[in-house]
Amino acid sequence: MTSGRGKFHYRERTGDAPTLLFLHGNLGTSRWWEPVLTRLPEGWRGIAYDAIGYGGSDRPEGLERYSVPARLRDLIAVMDALELERVHLVAHSTATPVAMEYALMAPERVVTLTLVGPVPASGAQTPQEAYPLLERMVSDPELLTEALHASAPHLDVSGPEFAHYLKDAATLAPLTLPAIARGLDAWRPGDRLRRLTLPVMIVRGEDDIMLEEKEAHMTLLAIPGAGNLEILHGAGHSPMIETPDGLTELIIAFIAEDWDDFESIRESVA
Questions:
Q1: 255 vs 42: CA distance, rounded Å
Q2: In sequence order, what are the residues at sequence separation of 6 or more whose Cβ sits closer than 8 angstroms to the Cβ of residue 10?
Q3: What separation, in Å, do the N-terminal and C-terminal C-alpha atoms of the chain show?
Q4: For 202, phi and psi rounded to 5 degrees?
Q5: Tens of pLDDT along 12-59?
Q6: Rounded to the nearest 5 degrees, what angle is found at the Cα of 113, between the Cα atoms of 217 and 74?
Q7: Could you tell me the domains of the chain?
Q8: What angle do CA 35, 36, 42 make, to 5 degrees?
Q9: Which helix H or strand E contains 263, and what residues bound it?
Q10: Closest alpha carbon to 197 in 251, 96, 268
Q11: What three-state secondary structure class fits 163?
Q12: What pTM, to 2 d.p., does this model score?
């Protein structure tokens, strides 16, 4: 797909409605959402794209292309290129700030928002000593394997799926991971999250070492529309590849809810 922000590779489960748009996290690509796409009900449309710097999408140089505002502009460009009017937005990990910012900017175009292993509402700070590790991670097979296993501890390290995900992660440009971290360091949502009155579901894997349970609850309380905090057993930080059945069931049930009451809330705060 060619857009005003460059070329993006994407995967699609064809259908009419509803339309779900999936954003992947730090070590992932659109491949991570394939297990969910294939489990969507007949007739539902699902789209997952590779973010800039990942998979088959463009790989520009420069830290500024990986900031949250830049990635937000990428999301807008993808929506426009695919002519998507209204979507159910589903985001994982480091992509969740982008999804939240889009919902704040264009609430009329987001029906529901699902945040899987989200960056906490208080923001995220990467320790300076971690940056050298991020800079060499994609060229260090052992370090990359450890990072992927930490993200998806219930995925079989010796299995073919893990090998596919590891191969994808190894294709990242060295700039990407530290640049994404720098962008998250600068993200300060503050009280603006109080404007997220659309239906929001937060999902956390029971064994997620990257999002503590306390942080998940604090994020739930910071977002008025967040009425659901779902805990998935048998999953760490990446339930879409660890427990795709469970995650897909949660997403389907959430989207299938009758959200008329939320429309009235939106109108009252507009």
A1: 14
A2: 1, 30, 47, 48, 49, 50, 78, 82
A3: 34
A4: -110, 130
A5: 999 999 999 999 999 999 999 999 999 999 999 999 999 999 999 999
A6: 115
A7: 2-269 (3.40.50.1820)
A8: 115
A9: helix 260-269
A10: 268
A11: helix
A12: 0.94
